[in-house]
Every structure is written in C-alpha cells, then in structure tokens.
Fold this sequence. Notes:
4 domains, six-stranded antiparallel beta barrel, 1 helix, rod-shaped
Amino acid sequence: MALIVKDRVQETTSTVGTIALVLTGTVSGFQSFSSIGNGNTTYYCVVGGTEWEVGIGTYTLTGTVLSRDTILASSNGGSAVNFSVGVKNVFVTYPAGKSVTIDDVQTLTNKSINLASNTLTGTTAQFNTALSDGDFATLAGTETLTNKSLNGTLGTTTPSTIAATTISASGVSTFSAGSAAAPAITTAGDTNTGIFFPAADTIAFAEGGAEAMRIDASGNLGIGNTTPSSFNASADNLVVGTTSGDNGITVVSGSASQGSVFFADGTTGGAQQAAGYIAYVHTTDYMALGTANTERMRLDSSSNLQFNSGYGSVATAYGCRAWVNFNGTGTVAIRASGNVSSITDNGVGNYTINFTTAFPDANYASLVNTQGSSTGSIVGEWGSYTSATNAFQAPTTSNFRITTWNSAVSGLADTAYVMASVYR
C-alpha cells in the first residue's frame, strides 16, 4: 500500500452517515479514483452543502469504495462528519496539515517532521536556515522528499560536494557545502569519535582521535591494526592488534556456558556443522580440542592431557617425562636426552640420573636398557643397592639411581650404551 496523490480526481457519492464513501461516478472533466490504484491511500476532501471533511482514505476497486481512515479536518470539529442525504463531491486534495511551505527566499519555515502525528514542528534553530540549491535532506520513516532541491527543480540523489554532517539527538543540525571527499560522520560535541573513509573502498572507525578498526577493500578486518592485508592477504581475514605489545581475542560466555572458536568449511550451511573447534568449558574447567564437531582431546584443571588413544574416550595420557641415552664407560657422556641435566658416575656400573625439572613426587616408573656383551649379559636395573652400607638408594623427585650388572663376572660393570626412560 502506497500514498498516491493525483491531479484532477473527482467523483460523486450519495453516502449517508460516517461509513466509507461509495463512489458513484466521475465528474465531467476529471479522473476517477481508480487512477489512485487498488489498495493505495490518498488525501481526500468530500463536500456536501455546508458539510465537509478532509482526511486520508484507502481506495478499493471492488465496490468502488473510499474508506475514511484518518480525519484531518472537518465541519464537525475535526471528527468524522455524519453526512446528510444528498449528492456530495469527493476529490483528491493536498491538505494544509500535510504541506511543507517554502517562503520567497527558499527557506524551510518548519524544520522537523513529526511522523507520529503527521505534523511539522520545530524552530529555525534546528536546521541551518539557508539550504542552498544542490543540498538535500533525508526524511525517516515513510515520508519521502521526492524532489531533491528546494528551488523546485529536480535535483540529483547524490550531490557533487557535501561536507561533514553532524548528528545529534534532535536530528541533523547542519547541511553545508564542503569537499568532494566522502564525509566523516561524528556525534555532536565529539569530533574524535565516528566513521570516516581514509581511502577508496575502505571504512574506518575512530575513537579518541585515533583509528580503532578498519575494513579494507578486500573485506579484511583489522582491529587495532590499519593494514590487515599486509600480514597474509590470502588467508587472514581478521587481524587483531599490532606487532608491538600484547594482543588477544576474548570469547565471553556465561559462567555455566562454553566459549568456543569454530573452524568450518563453509559448505554445510552452519558455522558449527562438521567443524573443528577449540573450546573452554566453564562448568568443569577444561579446554577441549575437536574435529568434525566432536571432542578429541582435553586439558583438565589438573594439567592432565586426556584423549582417546585406544583406552578411553577422554582417558589421561601418561607420557614419557624424562629419557636419556649415555655412554657409561670412561668419562660418562650423554648422547641425547630429555629433561635430564646430567649423569653422576658413582663407581663401576653405578649411575645417578639427574632431572632438569623435578617431578611432583617420586612415584614414577622407569625403564632401563643396556648393551649386550660377548663375555656375558649386561643387565640394567632400576635402583642401587650398596653392599658396603647394606642400603637401598630410593628414588627422589630430582634423580634416581641405576646399576648395570655383567653376568660373566657376577658383578657390576660399565657399558657403552645405557638407555633409561621415566613415566608419570
């Protein structure tokens, strides 16, 4: 439904009372109301003797009826007229209450439009009084200014030059000529906040006099970064922060919710369908890593790494926490190691393995392997029993002892290859 105004539209009616007007024929020299179009609204005036009414009505082709939706003015004090018997004329008009008046110097006397009451209100202080040819105004809601310039000629929808437009709570405050560049849009009283266009096809958002976010011509978004495409234009659509300082992205969710980052292929119609994801579950305090929208690995609040490695869907994985491969003959020398700082040579076939980072407790398990011998088997044993003191050397959080035994001499013996690993 649209509001239509046509020239020289007039018919007769014999309607009595306050009901809708049944149109009975076109007055000679005029158009019929069918030119308004079925279902459209228009401004009307109906006159019969001393009775008259101006309002907004809807034309219906079936039955040739014009409803009386809104009464703007009437001989009944602004209310619907209870029309008497007799023929009356109905015609399209331009009501005074809906008109915009421009004086002889092209000044818009009423500056704002109240769309709720369909009235023009306000004072000249709300707009600049001098609106020059080429400037244009935009009306919100269903009110449309069809002619763009105020001197009566048809203007263009985009003027060649416009200046910065200040927006306040009471409406647009200024229109004036300016540079040909695209305008900045700022809030009243704060010229350091707003949207501006630093280059072609680029939109930037500023705060406190500094650019805070940018969308470039390729659709890359930079937050705290003015050149998001300079990192990896073919892959990085979102760049947060600069090359200096600490930067990050925070995913906020409720205390009993899960915060997630999803990775989707874009072919399944949903961001979480068949997706890989990284999630933090607040309720039980753990991080999860998933593929195909299914959890595959978990890091719990006790620093345990859990995943399905063949013995449970989220069972804790117990990895090798220390290992070493060393030459136990002559001067002891480490070939390679992990979390082992040094080897102490305690005597023939007796060594202490020292950890770089201490274990939380001494309740770990170890595995010792040694090189074979043509003169007898050499066996590596965990722990160390000293016959002189008749004492067993228990493991500690920082080290443990091992011995290598040669069956040919029935005693301890050095060997060239000693390999030990520790699990916890």
